[in-house]
Amino acid sequence: MKRALQAAGLIAGAMAVLIVVALALLAWQVDRLGQRDDARAADAVIVLGARVEANGRPGSDLTSRTYHAVDLWQAGYAPYVICTGGYKNERLSAANVCRRFAMELGVPGDRVLLADGTSNTVEDAAATARVMADHGWQRAILVSHPLHLFRARWLFGKAGVDAVTSPTSTETGRILPPLRAWYALRESGAIVLTVLESWGWLPPQWTARLQAWSYGLP
Hints:
Elements: H1 2-33, E1 44-47, H2 60-74, E2 80-84, H3 94-104, E3 112-115, H4 121-135, E4 139-144, H5 149-158, E5 162-167, H6 177-198, H7 204-215
Parallel strand pairs: 1-2, 1-4, 2-3, 4-5
């Protein structure tokens, strides 16, 4: 019995080490992709939704994402911009605020489409995939915070969108190392939770609560 318990303990310990190593490697990939700009010719530039201020202006993340998407549009990488996030047909949704801001920056209204009615990246991917399918588009450039792009690209790929990534000008090197590591590990954990949910190992409400807890932290 003692040997069996020792063996079980060793196996559990080895599994724990493997899980930690796997998460660390995934976090490293998250961080590494965020430092690379893979923008290429595409059908649309996709702006992933972010916070909107109480006065209806885009928050800092949504501002930097929209600016970068417009820069890509002006450089001729894609003829359209797709803004995502928030309640459908809501004036202050992330998608609508992004659209108005992009128009202020010079993009014609008929060149900015909405993929709203979403509250997370999984839903952003599904809504955007429908918009692109309606127009016969396949290729896209994802624009978001550097440390969000690895998970976003994975989810958009699962939704059938052929996407490359282009990070905002946020400099990850200026983020405090512990906070940068937390952000990368948080994204890695979100990927793992999504996989476990898709396998039926976690109820969706558990996944939602865990993600709300982790993303609610500063």
